[in-house]
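Annotated sample (chain length 245).
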Amino acid sequence: MTTLAEATDITVRESQLRVAEAEASAALERVMGEPAVEARAQLRFAPGLTCEQLARMLDKALVRAQERGLAADALVVSGGSAVAAEDIVRVRRKAHGIADWIRSATSDVTIVLRPKGLAAAEPVAPPAEKPAAAPTRPRVPETEAELAVREALYDVIDPDLGVNIVDLGFVRRVEIAVDGVATITMTLTSAACPLTVVMESQIRTVLAEMDTEYVVQWEWLPSWRPHDISEDGRDQLRAIGFTAF
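Output written by the structure step:
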């Protein structure tokens, strides 16, 4: 049965917020039980460690409260949680053609606002265990037709890294169904990578001469990691200045 407090809750959630779990949890602890407007100010302007990412979540929560006719100054931070999420991995170019990988820690964060007097602040939920990555499918030898599609994909080049998508480990599977349609299962450095459209355009170009219908299927779990790169791919990256191999 829904309580009055739960019915008036304002809950905001963000997935893969670019803030480490420990930092987000500490920020939530600092403002738990505080009036929402004051909590937002503390997260944004208080001396010492601030957390702009959580302050923006409170911005969103207070806008929702206003839309529901709840006064901002009548709300307190009553609950929340921060759970470690997948790191975002991307490339960093440095001087003299040198480059390496950088990782950004992320968290799945929830903040709950509740009108004053309806309930005491709830403690920040302890970090939940990180869900196990989806198991990888057993590797099945590809048919001659599937190998031909994979071979064509060596001509698709990641514009940021300058290396083909097969050696980078972005092509997970090529499967051709009985109707002749090829499914190319791919991933990128993160689900937030903006290159999906670019990759699909390149794939369309390199496969245009093959009499094969295809679809690209994006797969984000398990997430891509630098160890997915082939030895040839590592050699190519070293040749263009990457130092992390």
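Annotation: The radius of gyration is 23 Å.
Annotation: Confidence is low (pLDDT under 50) at residues 1-5.
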